[in-house]
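Worked example 3 (structure in, sequence out).
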């Protein structure tokens, strides 16, 4: 893999993302070498995550399409991973109430 081309692609993805969000200073794109394909980790502020992902993931899909086109030109294959700084929020599950177990007929 050509490291210079991969870094240029990473920087371009960061510029595209920073033009789409309210907090462009908090957009970072890091190139991570893995055993398979290089990964671009795009990190945005939690309030901007929806703008990068878009309705039903359309914006994220468009960014990945741009990434694929740039990679095809450079004869590379890269993966885009979008990460927000938001803490993971799990749905609240009501606590199970203990009920007395009755046996047989009443």
């Amino acid at each position: 893999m050509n490291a210079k081309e991969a870094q240029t692609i990473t920087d371009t993805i960061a510029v595209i993302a920073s033009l789409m969000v309210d907090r462009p200073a908090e957009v970072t794109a890091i190139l991570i070498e893995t055993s398979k394909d290089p990964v671009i980790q795009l990190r945005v502020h939690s309030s901007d995550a929806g703008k990068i992902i878009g309705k039903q993931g359309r914006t994220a899909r468009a960014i990945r399409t741009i990434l694929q086109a740039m990679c095809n030109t450079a004869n590379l294959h890269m993966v885009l991973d979008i990460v927000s700084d938001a803490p993971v929020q799990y749905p609240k599950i009501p606590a199970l109430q203990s009920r007395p177990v009755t046996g047989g007929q009443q």
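Notes: The longest helix spans residues 58-74. The CA atoms of residues 14 and 66 lie 12 Å apart.
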